[in-house]
Predict the 3D structure of the following.
Amino acid sequence: ATPQALTAVTRYGPVARVFCGWNFSLVLFAEGIIFTFGRNNYGQLGRECEDQHQQQFDCTPLPVVSPLLEAGILDVACGSEHILVINGKRQVISWGWNEHGNLATPQPQHLADHPRPTLTTITSPPTAPPTAPSTAPTSATPTTMQVQSLPSILAPYKVYAGGARSFLMLC
């Protein structure tokens, strides 16, 4: 295949970073505008998908439009089929496939996809005794971005994602 220039998006200024998920790509421009293109079976492009069981590819780069993204973009991370963003207000925004709770929303079922950017609420989990190091979490263990007793001086600083996992660093 021959590399192609994305001429349709060059008018938005210089590209700050490029990210990729399993079958999709995200371009972040220096002005804080996000464009996505590729497979959209689970809403990972930030727009509605018709049927998650069919191969849906949208090769036209389009902006992800949401008031939640208007405060600027501080950080972005792509998992296999989900995206996490920290906006200029230090809020965590997520969209895409939520099969494993990787969007940190209350419903981790695969039917709870979020094709539109959604504000992620960081809450304190119930207090539980620490588990022994030899105890591995099961697939039924919730994997959400929850933070215990979040002091007011801590705010989302960096997001990481890989496969069906997400990680949030506070600072």
Confidence is low (pLDDT under 50) at residues 124-130, 132-149. Residues 130 and 136 are 12 Å apart (CA to CA). The longest strand covers residues 57-63.
